Amino acid sequence: MRIAVIGAGAIGATVAAYLSKSDSDVLLIGRPDQVEAIKARGLTVRGIGGDEVVHPRAATALDAAYDLVIFATKTQDLERAYQANADYLEDCYVLTTQNGVQADNILSSHYDPGRQLSSIVMFGATYTTPGEVVYNFPGDWIVGKPYTPLDPAFHRILETLRTDALPVVSSDNIMGMKYLKLFVNFNNCLPALIGKSMQETFADLDFCRLSIRLLKEGVGIVNKAHIELTSLPQFSTDRIYGLINMPEEQAAGIMNKTLTGLSAEPLYGSVLQSIMRGRTSEIDFINGEVVALAKGMQQSAPLNEQVVRMVHEVESRGGYFSVGQVKEAFELTGAPSQPTS
């Protein structure tokens, strides 16, 4: 199977690296600096599996028609990526990898619904420099079809995507799972406010408390919209509902322990990674998704509105808030900030 991956950031480069080690013919589409680095030195993947260099083909745009095109840009860049490669995107299957729930809707105007596949990325990766990524922690790559039933062509594609490093599992309710994954990604906004890693950010219990409050507000809005969350293979809905229904201090302690132990390497959420590269983030498609849902029901989500507004301020001014400024904005200054023994 001929596969093209559009987007050479953390997820796109990681996927292309491991697929290129299989029997598939893989082309990685990236920006000129990324393509130049990969052609000159190969694509380096560091992290849990050790360091290795692979050599996928790389280009700045599609050069032919491919059987499967994997879109690995941020959601806000999807339409631009499609238009830049539209000459070769007519008859392929397409697979989205974006956080949030809007990626498939964005591409739906261009494709027969039967050719659209959607996925949820549960592994962690960090883009460092052009031609280099860190594979922080393993996890499933969950693939389904957003608009039509699973069919033989889907299962053939699934077999092609499976590698030892990227376990691929199928889902017959990918959209229900995507709403749950939305809340898994809710924490990405907080490191983006202060410009620190996930580990540094959530070592402070105040940020863990804020994370629980954002989550509780978001789940409340989704429930009011009558959207049913569906468990992920290794992350059940009970974990989310358990966190928001237990005492806040207990939930914050769990958040602290979980997020500070995610990876031996510094892990930067997807929102902060975009900002660090001088690009707009996907905040409107994560926390902003809840804000939009609330407005559509004449409801409000004030905490998530505030965090979206502050992330956009970081993007526009090119500087981060101090820890104290964030705590003051969310009225967190009265609580102890460090874990207690």
CATH architecture of the largest domain: 3-Layer(aba) Sandwich
> Which fold does the CATH topology of the largest domain refer to?
Rossmann fold
Report the end-to-end length measured between terminal Cα atoms.
Answer: 54 Å
Strand sequence of the main sheet, in spatial order? 5-2-1-6-7-8-11-12
User: How many DSSP E strands?
Assistant: 12
Question: Any low-confidence stretches, pLDDT <50, length ≥5?
Answer: 337-341
The geometry reads as globular
User: Mean pLDDT score, rounded?
Assistant: 93
CATH C-level class of the largest domain is: Alpha Beta
How many domains, in number, for the residues? 2
Structural class: alpha/beta
Strand content: 15-25%
CATH homologous superfamily classification of the largest domain: NAD(P)-binding Rossmann-like Domain
Helicity, as a percent range: 40-55%
The major sheet is characterized as:
8 strands, mixed
Structure description:
With 341 residues, the protein is of the alpha/beta class. It has 2 domains: 2-172, Rossmann fold (3-Layer(aba) Sandwich), CATH 3.40.50; 179-329, N-(1-d-carboxylethyl)-l-norvaline Dehydrogenase, domain 2 (Orthogonal Bundle). It is 43% helix and 16% strand. It has 15 helices and 12 strands. It has helices spanning 10-20, 32-41, 78-84, 103-107, 152-161, 174-184, 189-194, 198-201, 205-224, 237-245, 248-260, 270-276, 287-296, 302-317, 323-329; strands at residues 2-6, 25-29, 43-47, 52-54, 57-59, 68-71, 93-96, 116-121, 124-129, 132-137, 141-144, 168-171. The chain has an 8-stranded mixed β-sheet with strand order 5-2-1-6-7-8-11-12. Strands 4-3-10-9 form a 4-stranded mixed β-sheet. Strand 9 (124-129) and strand 10 (132-137) form a beta hairpin. The chain is globular and about 55 Å long. The termini are far apart. Residues 337-341 have low confidence and may be disordered.
